[in-house]
Amino acid sequence: MFKFSLKQIAVFDAVASHESVSAAAKKLSMTQSAVSMSLSQLESVLDRPLFNRQGNRLVLSHWGHWLRPRAKRLLQDARQIEFGLHEQHLISGDLTLCTSQTAAKHLVPALISKIDNDFPEMRIDLMIENTENVIEALLNYDCDLGIIEGRNTDSRLQQEHWLDDDLVVIASPNHPFAQYKQVTLAQLEQAKWVLREPGAGTRRIFDGAIHGLIDNIKVWKEYESIRVIKSLVANGSYLGCVPYLDILPELESNQLVVLPTPQLNMQREISFIWRNDSGESPLRECLLSEARRLTRGRSFKPRKDGTPA
User: Fold this and answer.
1) Mean pLDDT for the stretch of residues 40-59
2) What is the pLDDT of residues 75-85, one digit of tens each?
3) How far is CA 81 from CA 12, 14, 74, 91, 94, in A?
4) How many Cβ atoms from other residues are within 10 Å of residue 268's Cβ?
5) Contacts for 6 with CB less than 8 Å, ≥ 6 apart
6) For residue 308, is pLDDT > 80?
7) How many of the other CB atoms lie within 10 Å of CB of 292?
8) Nearest-angstrom CA–CA distance, 103 and 291
9) pLDDT, averaged across the chain
10) Which residue has the higher pLDDT, 69 or 195?
């Protein structure tokens, strides 16, 4: 017979998520004393300390980190059993998706709409962060699935390629470089730039593309918002580097132009990532399957002249 209960595992998971007994109690609609007692009983049964107290926070111990992914899988399996026994939709429940800005703006809304229509019992909670923070959110168990730009090098995470989306150098049609058939590295080095902030997937790829080619680039401003970067470039003398998907409306209205920069390779991947220890997840597999269908046969790359492919 098992010496612990699913309720105790759920309490452990809630305290781990919030690092607080009071916050966990609120989430579980329990009293603080009941949460404390349940957690104490679990630690006693397992004969291991699961948390260390740091000020007002309860931080996972070594054993707590070991238990966390196993607790997540156990609770997930229990929910699927409950849905099946009650003849509900097996694709049912909440999935937290943390995504980078480009995917959030151009791809995720259609994906969520498709899932809402075909799987009404599945709910997607959305977080929008830069790539670095998406990875951190997954490692901290703040989300179930992530979408990032570029490559992930953390061995604790699994990655699946979704689609390719090139980065392009943009300028105002009135910028002197807009008339050139080719912009050289020396000209790019002399320009003033507005770019994404360090940690953003777009910035990582841009920095990697110019590494070893341009020694000192003049970064005038750094912003989290692609919209701000596009506006500054369209109305000023700056250059910017943004995903091609983000500038299609401005290209059509002639507010921005793509500069020909053949010496820069700025191809990138947009990928899904999740924790290796998260086990099987019907919700995750459902979302991945629908995402593959959504983009099958579509191109997200510009032609050499910058027009849509």
Assistant:
1) 88
2) 877 776 765 55
3) 20, 20, 11, 12, 15
4) 25
5) 74, 75, 78
6) no
7) 13
8) 11
9) 87
10) 195
Q: For the residues of the chain, what is the DSSP string, one character each?
A: --SS-HHHHHHHHHHHHHT-HHHHHHHHT--HHHHHHHHHHHHHHHTS--EEEETTEEEE-HHHHHHHHHHHHHHHHHHHHHHHHTT--SS-EEEEEEE-HHHHHHTHHHHHHHHHHH-TTEEEEEEE--HHHHHHHHHTTS-SEEEEES----TTEEEEEEEE--EEEEE-TTSGGGG-SS--HHHHHHSEEEEEPTTSHHHHHHHHHHTTT-S--EEEEEES-HHHHHHHHHHSS-EEEEEGGGGHHHHHTTS-EE---TT-----EEEEEEEGGG---HHHHHHHHHHHHHHTT----B-TTS-B-
195 in Cβ contact with 278 (< 8 Å) = no
The answer to whether the beta carbons of residues 80 and 90 sit under 8 Å apart is: yes
> What pLDDT shows up at residue 304?
60
Query: What domains sit in the chain, N to C, each tagged with a CATH number?
Result: 6-85 (1.10.10.10), 93-164+269-295 (3.40.190.10), 167-258 (3.40.190.10)
pLDDT in tens, 148-189: 987 888 999 999 999 888 899 999 999 999 999 999 999 999
Choice between 85 and 39, residue whose per-residue pLDDT is larger: 39
What are the tens digits of pLDDT across the range 246-292? 898 899 899 999 999 999 989 888 999 999 988 778 889 889 999 99
